[in-house]
Amino acid sequence: MMSGTMDPMPAATVTAAAGAARALLRLEEGNEAALLERIAGVALGLAESFCGQVLIQRIVEERLPGAPEWQSLSATPVVAILSGGEGEIDRDGRGWIRAGEAVVVRYRAGLAVGWAALPPEIAHGVVIMSAHLFDNRDAAAVPPAAVAALWRPWRRMRLDSPRRA
Fold it and tell me: Which is it for strands 78-83 and 67-72: parallel, antiparallel or unpaired?
């Protein structure tokens, strides 16, 4: 679970996702554009929640208490630790910080730099989810199983707290 603050999803990413959903739905340009943008933003958020990782790179700020041992950052995958204590990134993309006193850590996390760099399975799942939300806005329909099947290989789950020796 993410603690701290994260930059919002980049508008260009939401616009690109909405455009892909518009193409799937065969809607004309400008037709229900504002609604489709909101839905694409929701679908991207659902994808991040399901996958358990930040999909599009953004800046994260997280406050950590001082501790002599390594502490794990909450957002993954970490691309760069920009400030705040001694930091390392492990091979799984988890960021680790060691600081003797409370510190605000600023770092960049995310799987891809933008919509075009997202793995095709994640992007297609976002498009299908957007189309589903668009078509079923008046009903409480169950999301398509195909979306979970596309996103499942990218899902990161932890049952315990990460630890480092």
Answer: unpaired
Q: Which two tokens stand for residue 45?
A: 């958020």
- Give the per-residue pLDDT at 2: 57
Decide if domain 7-56+115-157 falls under CATH 1.20.120. Answer: no
Tell me which amino acid residue 96 is.
Answer: W
Residues 89 and 81 sit within 8 Å (Cβ to Cβ): yes
Q: Which of 110, 67, 64 is nearest to 84 (CA)?
A: 64
Per-residue pLDDT, averaged over 42-58, amounts to: 95
104 sits in which H/E element? strand 103-109
Q: What is the pLDDT of residues 72-100, one digit of tens each?
A: 999 999 999 999 888 999 999 999 999 88
Under the banding of pLDDT at 50, 70 and 90, the label for residue 1 is very low
Q: Which two tokens stand for residue 139?
A: 């009903």
Residue 32 burial class via C-beta count within 10 angstroms: exposed 0-12, middle 13-18, buried 19 and up: middle
- For tokens 């991040």, the residue is 48
Largest CA distance in the chain: 58
Q: Are 36 and 129 in contact (CB under 8 A)?
A: no
Token pair in block for residue 12: 């260009």
